[in-house]
User: What shape does this take?
Amino acid sequence: MNKDNVKLWNRIYFTMLPIISIVIYYFLSRALNKGVFELFLGILKIPMVQFIEFLYLAEILISLILLIVFFVIYELAVKKSRDEMVARFDLKTVGLSLVTGIGVSGISFIWIIIAGNIPEFQAHLSAMREGNAMIGGGSLHGVFLSAVVAAPIVEEVLFRGIVFGSFRKIFPAWASILVSAIIFGVYHMNPVAIVYASMMGVIAGIVYEKKRNLIFPIILHMA
Assistant: This one.
């Protein structure tokens, strides 16, 4: 196979891999959620009140399964062929990632306030509040473990590790950052969330491009 054919196949492969991975994530996460509900509520007959109280454990279990699946894809299909230098784990970069994440949160908060004054966004904000109230069963420790710890790890492995990492092999850095961030935003399927998720995706993509280490965008996402 000549070099032109190799380049063509690489372009096809690293364009399709992110799309296939996101489709797998969408259907697998929903199948796992449905399976958990059927197992505990339908088969084990656990009362709804008790199930909601420990819902965060089910969410963590689902996140763990998803993490294993996509980390394997990342390691075998994306990271394996990357030869760039990877930044070491250090407290300075961890601190910068935390501060950056907090800054992004502040900007997102301002956007949500602005969206709250726009009538067209009211229904979308209400849907966000209802969805957030269900995370972790509503308990503080449940929200922390599910939304602050588990979800960012899975999403960064998928959207920065696989999606951005794949695009980066065939497109310039700016295009890979922008496209992967927009995909990350659109996946939230809520006009209000799309804006701040896309913005966070851009910042996380820049951090990953510079450091080549997923731990830093994960920390940013958690913050």
